[in-house]
């Protein structure tokens, strides 16, 4: 138990606002030896991505997880504010409880705090007391303190329960408890959590905190209702997965530029979302309001309109997916496949239809349902989940535009380069930004893990998020410097600062230009070993760009572009012409064509694919092709015909068994004989753990392996890579994935074939070095990554790469791998 004394408390404070209140309670923590002064800034930044207001006049400000090294020891400090301080609109705080949590010793304080939170009389008394001992006794749980034990909840008639261990480093504190209850609220069942002889309402934050669950302790979750088992499974999975705290240890990629300003009129802090420096005038962007009628007379007509709007939105998303994938790569484009999953949410659609049948128009009903869901998601204390609220809002607006008769919301346009400022940007907004005119952007909301931030990084646009509402008051034309690395927006900088920022930016650009100028040079390590670097492309026009970008061929051609967005499949001649055009554009460089990889997750009208509960585990890739041999043979004939015009290899996707591989090879041989072509190398994608585990057997049957790290990761980690809340945790640098790849490379070496990697990991500098160190011979990636990856490979020895790979294989999790330092 933390020792509480009068020195931990300041009475009758009068802070001017929330930030000053945090500063004052932070200074008290500093004076008592709990934190370094730097932690105060972290406490302020926490407020930008999460709300620390508990309710009933109490807040619990604390810092970001990545700044725990500034905590000297666990402790709390209390600022009494009798006159109250506004925490957020409508939230008045009288007791500011600053927390420095180096261990879970503070859990008991929080437990006692929730008893206080339940008792309005006690809160009023502590707010007005002139004796700090009153507060000491209340939060220490000493005799004499007013405490009302929460009523025990009877679980005798609950039919279902499950035991699970809370492994969060600091137990079931505010953030993971919020995560828990928000998942619990998704279900109709009554949910109770039992711990150490006490029980609490699983849908109440105060009730959960009152249990005082520490790290490594077992809780029993009870559920009663029609969806009790689903609720228990979801909650158990959530607790096992860390209740949203896993990703907090990750850092946004940064490129140190070493620049700091000397004289600016005002600094607005935010959170870094995309690194880089930008100088220019501010330009505000506001979405226009989409107006819809509240009521409608014909529910059936409105239901039909809803169906049409959802279908149109899905079509828009597919086109946007293809555009972003071609420009920024599959990981960024997958965001819009996740958006499509929102449109298929049965609860969301059912609630909308229910409101329509109650008399609302389709547009009004949809807006109300989306707004309710967004508000609920925004309350998540976990920044990753809160960031997903913007994705749902984006999807909502996309449908609403069709329901309101507005086909296209106004995208941001500018006739001059500007720094864009907005309340928030949807992923769709960000994907349509022109990097030539958008020097950088700053949003008042959002988070560094939002999909807009991810897209900004892929477009190389410096960005800051969560800078607060003050940025929305900046006048258009105000000169500013946006520091995406430091997370600050500097207003009205001095001419000297503008000049030094420009010089720093030029240094960064010079480094990138140097990489680009040497893009045609091979990726030879300092000790003379070569790694082939190729491009991933998704349409014919990109073949020439791949060569221009320094690619030594195409390591992955996604052929789906020929099959999507049309009413009938492409015939053999159309496919042949497209493949031949790409071969000729490559001018002798190799092309690896992946056969059709479509399944239940992609809408293809002419295939009439049934909806699947788990499309990534269903009929997709080679399974679909083997079940529709004429479709497959048509593609194979076109590929073999094109093979006469240059070097070409065939690659089968989603192979899981030797029987599938044998069947695919039989059909390929049939197609080759029919067109009279010479044999070509046939390889397979390694995306399924069964192939990695049996790599020795598969290596005897193919000419090469190409590891698809995106899919392999989701299957190894059992995390859907486009899941709105889990996708960010599916990290290909997890040692479990790296060990799979290591196993594949060893098997290929034994068999005398080569292994490449065409997933997103190949395009990361750290990932590329580790893969090279594992013995991967070819790295294939999105075109913008080719030059920097080549430069990185040329800067090390293969011995160094092997050592980094050895260290990575020995790590316990992906965070340890990402903490490894490159030479």
TrEMBL record:
Domain HPr: 159-246
Gene Ontology molecular function: phosphoenolpyruvate-protein phosphotransferase activity
Principal location listed in the UniProt entry: cytoplasm
Gene3D superfamilies assigned to the protein according to its UniProt record, in alphabetical order: HPr-like, Mannitol-specific EII, Chain A, Phosphoenolpyruvate-binding domains, Phosphohistidine domain, PtsI, HPr-binding domain
Domain of life assignment: Bacteria
Subcellular location: Cytoplasm
A Pfam family of this chain: PEP-utilizers
Family matches, as PROSITE patterns: PEP_ENZYMES_PHOS_SITE, PTS_EIIA_TYPE_2, PTS_HPR_DOM, PTS_HPR_HIS
Catalytic activity: L-histidyl-[protein] + phosphoenolpyruvate = N(pros)-phospho-L-histidyl-[protein] + pyruvate
Residue ranges of domain PTS EIIA type-2 in the record: 2-142
EC number: 2.7.3.9
Metal-binding keyword on record: yes
Key words of the record: Cytoplasm, Kinase, Magnesium, Metal-binding, Phosphoprotein, Phosphotransferase system, Sugar transport, Transferase, Transport
Known cofactor(s): Mg(2+)
Family: Belongs to the PEP-utilizing enzyme family.
Listed name of the protein: phosphoenolpyruvate--protein phosphotransferase
Organism whose genome encodes this protein: Pseudodesulfovibrio karagichevae
Record lineage: Bacteria, Pseudomonadati, Thermodesulfobacteriota, Desulfovibrionia, Desulfovibrionales
Gene: ptsP
């Amino acid at each position: 138990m933390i020792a509480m004394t009068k020195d931990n408390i300041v009475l009758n404070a009068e802070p001017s606002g929330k930030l000053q209140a945090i500063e004052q309670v932070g200074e008290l923590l500093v004076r008592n030896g709990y934190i370094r002064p730097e932690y105060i800034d972290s406490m302020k930044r926490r407020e930008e991505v999460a709300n620390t207001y508990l309710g009933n006049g109490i807040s619990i400000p604390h810092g970001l997880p990545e700044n725990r090294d500034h905590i000297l020891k666990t402790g709390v400090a209390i600022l009494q504010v009798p006159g109250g301080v506004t925490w957020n609109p409508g939230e008045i705080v009288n007791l500011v409880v600053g927390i420095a949590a180096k261990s879970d010793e503070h859990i008991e304080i929080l437990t006692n705090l929730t008893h206080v939170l339940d008792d309005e009389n006690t809160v009023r008394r502590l707010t007005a007391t002139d004796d700090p001992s009153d507060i000491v006794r209340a939060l220490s749980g000493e005799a004499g303190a007013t405490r009302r034990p929460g009523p025990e909840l009877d679980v005798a008639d609950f039919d279902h329960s499950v035991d699970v261990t809370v492994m969060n480093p600091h137990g079931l504190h505010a953030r993971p408890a919020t995560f828990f209850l928000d998942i619990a609220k998704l279900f109709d069942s009554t949910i109770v959590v039992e711990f150490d002889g006490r029980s609490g309402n699983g849908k109440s934050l105060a009730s959960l905190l009152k249990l005082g669950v520490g790290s490594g302790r077992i809780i029993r979750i009870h559920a009663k209702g029609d969806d009790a088992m689903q609720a228990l499974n979801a909650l158990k999975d959530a607790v096992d997965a860390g209740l949203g705290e896993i990703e907090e240890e990750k850092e946004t990629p940064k490129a140190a530029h070493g620049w700091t300003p000397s004289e600016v009129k005002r600094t607005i802090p935010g959170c870094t979302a995309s690194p880089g420096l930008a100088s220019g005038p501010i330009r505000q962007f506001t979405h226009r309001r989409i107006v819809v009628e509240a009521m409608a007379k014909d529910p059936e007509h409105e239901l039909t309109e809803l169906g049409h709007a959802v279908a149109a939105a899905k079509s828009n998303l597919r086109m946007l997916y293809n555009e972003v994938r071609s420009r920024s790569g599959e990981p960024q484009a997958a965001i819009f496949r996740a958006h499509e999953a929102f449109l298929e949410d049965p609860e969301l659609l059912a609630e909308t239809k229910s409101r329509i049948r109650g008399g609302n128009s389709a547009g009004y009903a949809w807006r109300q349902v989306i707004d309710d869901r967004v508000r609920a998601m925004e309350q998540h204390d976990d920044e990753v989940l809160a960031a997903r609220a913007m994705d749902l809002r984006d999807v909502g607006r996309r449908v609403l535009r069709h329901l309101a008769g507005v086909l296209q919301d106004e995208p941001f346009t500018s006739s001059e380069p500007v720094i864009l400022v907005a309340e928030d940007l949807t992923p769709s907004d960000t994907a349509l930004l022109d990097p030539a005119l958008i020097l950088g952007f700053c949003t008042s909301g959002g988070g560094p893990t939002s999909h807009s931030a991810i897209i900004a990084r892929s477009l190389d646009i410096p960005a800051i998020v969560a800078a607060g509402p003050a940025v929305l008051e900046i006048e258009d034309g105000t000169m500013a410097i946006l520091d995406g690395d430091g997370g600050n927006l500097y207003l009205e900088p001095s001419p000297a600062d503008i000049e030094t920022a420009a010089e720093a930016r030029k240094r960064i650009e010079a480094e990138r230009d140097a990489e680009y100028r040497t893009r045609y040079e091979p990726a030879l390590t300092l000790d003379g070993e070569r790694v082939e670097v190729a491009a991933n492309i998704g349409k014919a026009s990109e073949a020439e760009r791949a060569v221009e970008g320094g690619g030594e061929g195409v390591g992955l051609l996604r052929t789906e572009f020929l099959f999507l967005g049309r009413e009938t499949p492409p015939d053999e001649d159309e496919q042949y012409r497209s493949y031949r055009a790409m071969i000729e554009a490559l001018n002798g460089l190799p092309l690896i064509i992946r056969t059709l990889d479509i399944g239940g997750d992609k809408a293809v009208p002419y295939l009439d694919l049934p909806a699947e509960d788990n499309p990534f585990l269903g009929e997709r890739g080679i399974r679909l092709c083997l079940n529709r041999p004429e479709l497959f043979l048509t593609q194979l004939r076109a590929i073999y015909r094109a093979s006469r015009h240059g070097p070409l290899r065939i690659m089968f996707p989603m192979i899981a068994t030797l029987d599938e591989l044998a069947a695919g090879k039989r059909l390929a041989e049939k197609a080759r004989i029919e067109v009279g072509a010479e044999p070509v190398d046939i390889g397979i994608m390694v995306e399924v753990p069964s192939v990695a585990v049996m790599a020795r057997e598969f290596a005897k049957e193919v000419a090469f392996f190409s590891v698809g790290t995106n899919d392999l990761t989701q299957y190894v980690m059992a995390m859907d890579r486009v899941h709105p809340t889990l996708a960010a945790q599916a990290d290909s640098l997890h040692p479990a994935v790296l060990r799979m790849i290591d196993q594949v490379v060893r098997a290929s070496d034994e068999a005398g074939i080569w292994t490449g990697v065409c997933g997103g990991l190949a395009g990361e500098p750290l990932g590329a070095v580790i893969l090279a160190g594992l013995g991967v011979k070819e790295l294939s990636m999105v075109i913008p990554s080719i030059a920097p990856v080549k430069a990185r490979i040329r800067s090390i020895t293969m011995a160094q790469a092997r050592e980094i790979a050895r260290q990575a294989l020995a790590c316990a999790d992906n965070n340890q791998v990402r903490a490894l330092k490159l030479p």
